[in-house]
Amino acid sequence: MSSYSLLYKNIDEIKIKGVTKINLPKLKKLGIFSLYDLFYHFPRAYENRDNYKKINEVLDEEFVILKGTVVNIVSRFAKRGMVMVSAVLSDETGMMELLWFNNRYVKNNVKVGNEIMVYGKVKKGMKMQIINPEYKKIDEEYFETKKENQILPIYPSTESLRQISIRKIIEAALNSYGYLLYENMPNEFLKKEKIIGRKEAMLNIHFPESEAKKEEAQKRFMFEEILLLEMGILQSRFQSEKNNKNVYKLEDKKSLVSKFIKSLPYELTKAQKTVITEIYKELKAGKIVNRLIQGDVGSGKTIVSFVILLYMIENGYQGAIMAPTEILSIQHYLGIIDEFSKLDIRVELLTASVKGKKREKLLNEIKEGLVDIVIGTHSLIEEDVVFKNLGLIVIDEQHKFGVRQRKLLRDKGNLANLIVMSATPIPRSLALTIYGDLDVSIIDELPSGRSPIKTKWIKDEIEKRKMYDFIDRMIEKGRQIYIVSPLIEESETLNVKSAQETFEEYKDIFPNRRIDIIHGRQKYKEKQEVMEEFKNHKIDILVSTTVIEVGVNVPNATVIVIRDAQRFGLSSLHQLRGRVGRGSHKSYCFLESKTNNEVSVKRLEVMEKTTDGFKIAEEDLKLRNSGEILGIKQSGVSDMVFTDIVRNVKEIKKVHDFVIWYLEKNNGQIENEFLKMDIYKKFFRAE
């Protein structure tokens, strides 16, 4: 096992041919810090070098291999001191010009009369050329065998680190340390799915013997990356459930819950009641709750979490709510403080803005158990935050946090009960896979009285003027408006209206209306004051950046205008639209954009057609990389190279089922030490 750890050793601490002081920083820039990273720096594409041709057979824009004699070679200085080397290659069918830029080595190495092989892309203009071709003299055995070199890898690279250099480094690493690639997948799975071994796959992913071998290698590494993900997630859950059966008993007090629900100005939906009952049953049975609540914007996920928090507090525990942004933390605080104070429950806000003696006092009170619920951002996971009896953690916007952050907060509690909420809906089959360590509850019902938000794409100035008239009529009726811009300040490079420009513009358009601005650079107190004034209807129009994307709840706001809407993904557009339609009044969303980009047009058309978050998420998954929509740093999906969580659902399910069988068979233990180490490095490396 000790030799296997060499795979994770820093590359500057081991000897690899071709890794020099000059290219070491370039490799690190590519995320290559260890031998493991080097091996798993997979090609992004391949070039088929089986295309041997005569000069008179070549086509424009094709990659070819030519063999011939150098009949002329000269060098001269071009612009800015750059050296250009020009050579003429001849075979029995014709001549081809070869051009190299800033490659003095060619002039010294290649002479008239040399027989050489070249590889490159043909350009046909006034004359035929290959620019910056790779070459070797025939006597240097270029392409040692045709078979070994007919498919060459093209790697993700960085400036001045040439493909040939990366290839040589990886080839040298495989020659010297390939023996370390012990099998890290269970034999049962390899046999069942007819998967090739790790060493063979690694050689054929970098330097394929054939197309068939390359595909076999890609299949193997697709299954390997899914297995690492699923095994890491599900083993953690298996151990948690095994260690936490009947570890506590609640007295099942619910008087606070009853009072809170009766105080609500509306009745809970059937979907909300179902989720609450599911969680009650788990708590009553002494089971550790580990649940993802998915629901569209405005479906009432937060109220469900408040009910469960009250239940835990009445049974003697503290609660914590962690949100990704300060403004969302503030919104949760403002949304809970009035009602909970009536129930004699103490709620406090802990963010980076709480400093000095005030923070010190608050930390002591949390430690002594004098605070019932703490709401905050990443500040909650800092070492000096200690709870007396933390029993339930609620994490909002789950996809914005990592596994490690989630674990750090859970470790602070006597009970690791966890509810995570996400308003980024994904199909249930994917939710069960991606959040494999969580039970999934879906709130697929909006509160009664809510009507769908009417959405319109504003494409030109005529439509914009009509929109301004409509906004004025809405304000006259007593409604409020959000105007959202993707940027805070004007950009020299992007043709996008900034929030600051929008603020000035709207003051001119609506001189008699109360207008203010909120953005991420403002101080906590300033943002809080603006949001309080908007909530209390002292502001008619609030100009904002995406700080209002999640959590802000002002039922009287019925219109949202999203400027330069093509700059946002579908998921963000849907989240922003969800800031309106939260009351009984009919609500509207306007998407300003003059785009003719195909993907952007598709997004805006989808937004006009549907308000169903799950349908929107499916469209988003089609239009964007799956890791991008989910923002999933926490589960390792962002590391996946060969797996698409939409197209490969069957393969993911297959691995998921195998891992459950494997863990049950082995009592939650991973027998393969190499697999165990790879999982540990994947999930617990520094984030």
Low-confidence sequence ranges? 140-148, 627-635
For the largest beta-sheet, the strand count, sense and barrel status come to:
7 strands, parallel
Helix content: 25-40%
Any idea what the shape is?
globular
- As a whole number of angstroms, the C-alpha radius of gyration is 31 Å
The fourth-level CATH homologous superfamily of the domain at 454-610 is: P-loop containing nucleotide triphosphate hydrolases
Secondary structure tally, helices: 23
What's the pLDDT, averaged over the residues?
A: 83
CATH class of the domain at 454-610: Alpha Beta
CATH fold-level name of the domain at 454-610: Rossmann fold
Largest sheet, order of strands side by side?
A: 11-12-10-13-14-9-15
The tally of strands reads 21
Structural class: alpha/beta
Which CATH architecture of the domain at 454-610? 3-Layer(aba) Sandwich
Strand content: 15-25%
Q: For the record, give the distance between the C-alpha atoms at the N and C termini, rounded to a whole number.
A: 25 Å
Provide an overview of this structure:
With 687 residues, the chain is an alpha/beta fold. Among the domains are: 50-142, OB fold (Dihydrolipoamide Acetyltransferase, E2P), CATH 2.40.50.140; 255-287 and 300-422, P-loop containing nucleotide triphosphate hydrolases (Rossmann fold, 3-Layer(aba) Sandwich), CATH 3.40.50; 454-610, P-loop containing nucleotide triphosphate hydrolases (Rossmann fold). Helices cover 39% and strands 18% of the residues. It contains 23 helices and 21 strands. A seven-stranded parallel beta sheet has the order 11-12-10-13-14-9-15, sandwiched between helices. A hairpin with a 3-residue loop joins strand 5 and strand 6 (128-131). Helix 7 crosses helix 22, helix 7 (211-243) crosses helix 23 and helix 19 packs antiparallel against helix 20. The longest helix is centred in the first third of the chain and has 33 residues, at 211-243. The chain is globular. It starts with 23 loop residues before the first helix and ends with a helix. Residues 282-443 form the Helicase ATP-binding domain. One of its GO terms (molecular function) is DNA binding. Residues 466-622 form the Helicase C-terminal domain. Its EC number is 5.6.2.4. This is ATP-dependent DNA helicase RecG.
